[in-house]
Amino acid sequence: MSIKVQNISKSYKTAKAVKNVSFEVNRGELFGLIGPDGAGKTTLFRILTTLLIANEGRASVMGFDVVKDYKAIRNSVGYMPGKFSLYQDLTVEENLTFFATIFGTTIQENYDLIKDIYIQIAPFKNRRAGALSGGMKQKLALCCALIHAPKVLFLDEPTTGVDPISRKEFWEMLKRLQQKDITILVSTPYMDEASLCDRIALIQDGQVLKIDSPENIIKNYNKIIYDVATKDTHALIHDLKNYPSQYSVNAFGEYIHYIDKESDFNTKELQKYLQNKKHINIEIKQAQITIEDVFMDL
Amino acid sequence: MEKEKIIAVKNLTKKFGDFAAVDDISFDVYKGEIFGFLGANGAGKTTAMKMLIGISSPTTGDATVAGFDLHSQSEMVKKNIGYMSQKFSMYDDLTVKENIIFFGGIYGLSRAKIKTKIASLVKELQIEDIINSLVGSLPLGWKQKLSFSVALLHDPQIVFLDEPTGGVDPITRRQFWEMIYTQAFKGTTIFVTTHYMDEAEYCDRVSIMVAGKIEALDTPKKLKEQFKVDSMNDVFLKLARNIE
Question: Coiled coil located at which positions (chain A) (predicted)?
């Protein structure tokens, strides 16, 4: 077991940020905390990286207790906070050297581990970190979190605000790190990234709603979802919401995801209803279920 | 019928030294349209948007926004547009009401007008019980809905939304898009950037910037046909990868 969280709770003044959360991450696993802003993801990261003490519960990383053995944890984990926290007025190379030195190592010693990522930012190694683009900052932060060859990597929303291409590349990098026996705990508000993790915890308002592999979460979802599209999407949302047996209506890209309350739901009746509402180009078909669908129905 | 152009951009360029952050772009946006402005980080979206909202002047090229020339009438441009981003929204240490009064004042609304605006927003958004709460104490979803409303206080012809939905939960994100639809239906033009590709599908037309240029511009449906893929995400990946 690489990470063990048992009944952790944490409050700030009046707000309960994390409520009785428990989960375990296996060695070598890529585990995702999936949830929106304010779900409590960052608080959990800070507790696990020994920067914050929980009010209740216990947690350990690689067998080390987060309170008692905090020094051992700090030496053996890498942490990339959500907010860019490298030195803006140091260059790329200076930042990396700085973090290597802090951990009593050198860039050369662990170069193999960061090589794939570092070569992408090497052309800018003399540029100040503050002057890098978002994607470059993210790669530098990952290098700095890896430079002491940690066994466990904590990545708090590494892809927030990053474009789809850089996001895809970033996840490819994580997969490669996983091959090198690094356990990764990563959080993201992007539901489409959930499917790239081995297992995920869906989290909202400080509580874990579900823990499982993305495949199982989708497989165990027991409602049928329909893709519905017509020429006028805005009117379609409105009309579907007024359909007597509607359970939920959510926009999903070019289709509306529609769930009906009734088990004997007939798409023909819905088709007729939409025709009466003057919709044209009506399309109704069974939809592929996504993690986002499941999340919204929890 | 000729559609009314609300933004007309011709050969717009912005250079920083030798580097063209925005490189000779031309496009039109029509009244009441939801226009998605996409691109990778560093593609030049923010630079282009800053020019269109009148806070950065173009190196070369021309544009009119809401009928005003970007070079000679940038102050008029500012008066006729709304702007909202995730980074800049409202003041956390003012209440909802104080924020509305403040921004109303900035936009030059009369006191009477601000008063009626507050009353209508309270009704429309059902914010009776939070109108006197500090904005900082509200959930992110509420802040976003409120800052969208604040960006519309002066009834602008166009509203620019810079990654308005980053980080919010999936339900709030959809509620926000319903607000956008409703506003577009009332005739306000929406110019929006996002990294959520499913949101690109909600736009009437989408442009994709790559390395300072607009490499694609069409309806989501036509873009998918053109690139022979099933989703806007794939359009985006294909386009930006091909260029590299």
Answer: none
Mean pLDDT of chain B: 91
Residue to substitute from A234, A259, A289, A293, interface B, most B β-carbons within 10 A: A234
Expressed as residue numbers, the domain containing A178 is 3-219
CA dist B37 and A78 (Å) reads: 36
pLDDT of residue A274: 96
- Distance, in Å, from the CA atom of B144 to the CA atom of B167, rounded to the nearest integer, reads 11
For residue B167, which residues of chain A lie inside 8 Å, CB to CB? 36-37, 157, 160, 189
- Final residue of a domain: which of A198, A219, A240? A219
CA closest to B168 among chain A residues? A36
The answer on A269 and A178 residing in a single domain is: no
Does the predicted interface ipTM exceed a cut of 0.90?
A: no
Number of domains in chain A: 2
CB pairs below 8 Å between A and B: how many?
A: 88
All residues of chain B having their beta carbon less than 8 Å from the beta carbon of residue A157 are 167
What is the per-residue pLDDT for B169?
A: 84
Q: What pLDDT sits at residue B244?
A: 42
